[in-house]
């Protein structure tokens, strides 16, 4: 790197005589010397005296040595500003007007040596005055010209700096964008420029791709010339713009899908095509996953052993095979039908609609039971489990799971009347749709589990690893039976129905019933089914069992439990040779309390009396309520306690 003063004769000499030398110019000699001292340049060219002056001024430069052979040697220097040819010509004209005799007189006058004997002093003086005046005017004009040139130079430098700053800004934006950007030649499609993102995504360096066709990083094999990159670039140049998808190939051979937007433009006065390329690999993978998910859902929609329908504005839009079996119609006959035609009357139609839609405005799901008319005119009892397709949009439609519960209803009608409360409580039974596979090697896993699994089970609904997490949370006392029944069903390739208790991560226990059926697919056995929450039913059954042995008001054992415990107590007394006491209590004037204060107060009195008696006796003794106001206690006595009285104060 060689430095020189910008505009100096040394710059011209170096550029003309030494074109291979890398030259860097500076605005003045002092800036040149400072740059040399800062190691920006290793060699600088300047007048010897000027260079020595600034090196001495800056108190440095001992490391620099003067060249043995200078670049140029000038014996004389012109007093005229460089390239000021008009002034130079004017001065030359003035000197040409002076005769040799006049020049000799001037020399004699300056040097004190006589050059000639006779001189035209008046003419010489006049000529010198004219020359001096001319020089003075030319100096004034030259000074004004210098100022204008200096101002123009400053303006030009400022515009140049602004242009460089703008170019840097655009280049930074060009390289900082997340999309690949290519600049193509319209005629042959060559890559003229590219940003840093294109370098990173393709794996090629900028030097490797400049001048190349986009086909070098393209994985497409076009079926015709019309699909080739060069043709698309020419088409974009003709039409102005073009958007299409294209498969790119990285340097390592990996491919990725992109969306290419071509735009015709003029850059530097030449026709160019600008290509903005966006990586859409994630979008393509999402599309593939969505298609796979849709295929899975369609399979589940057809395979689950319950009727599934899609309803919009209470009109059937889609039905599965099981729903066709429940109603006795084909899918072509059902799609487009109003639901009202299947109900007993308009009142029932309105009741079911209100129960479903009003609940969905407040909850994510709803449940109701009703009767639907089949094609043969026979009514079937069904349960409807509904969920909004778009919870935030009430007009988005509803998905209904329809289960034929006619046989279940017939069995329930044979139960005691108190079991009717169970059917009234079970208005919203949440369900989970699932599909699991069983392979010959013994491996079992989930293909699909619906989003409700997260809400009901407290586990992630994603199929990967969900089966293992699901098994882990089954109650320990049910886990072995659960796995045994599942393996037995798989071995027999039969329907699988099971009830078990599930322990959530919060410690809450819930009861579920699973109903599923298998299909044979290649080497796999695929079970599709639903899981219904029967926690409320289980709680109701436990309550009914409790009411069979305990009084509903006082929570004391009733006559049935008393007889069982009395028989056991008598047997134990006979075996251990001990005695047993039985106390029969009747609340005096209990009827007066009911008649004067009301049955509610009478019930409260009876509850208080029962609580006090239960608090006075031991845990092994049994208090019992026999009738409206009769209480009975039996007390197992030992040899130590028999002689003593038993005081009771209620």
Notable features of this structure?
22 helices; alpha+beta; five-stranded antiparallel β-sheet; 650 residues; single chain; 21 strands; 24% strand; disordered C terminus
Low-confidence stretches: 74-81, 110-120, 417-429, 639-650
User: Into which percent range does the helicity of residues fall?
Assistant: 40-55%
The total beta strand count reads 21
Helix count equals 22
Mean pLDDT: 76
Adjacency order of strands in the biggest sheet: 5-4-8-7-6
Q: Largest sheet, described in full?
A: 5 strands, antiparallel
Overall shape: it is elongated
Class based on secondary structure composition and strand pairing: alpha+beta
Amount of beta strand: 15-25%
Question: Taking Cα atoms only, what radius of gyration do you get, to the nearest Å?
Answer: 53 Å
How many angstroms does the end-to-end distance come to?
A: 116 Å
Report on the structure:
The protein has 650 residues and is of the alpha+beta class. The protein contains 22 helices and 21 strands. The strands form five sheets. A five-stranded antiparallel sheet has the order 5-4-8-7-6, with helices on both faces. A five-stranded antiparallel sheet has the order 10-9-13-12-11. Strand 9 and strand 10 form a beta hairpin. The longest helix has 56 residues, at 121-176. The protein is elongated, with a radius of gyration of 53 Å. It starts with a strand and ends in a 13-residue tail after the last strand.
Concise synopsis of the structure shown:
This protein has about 650 residues and is an alpha+beta fold.
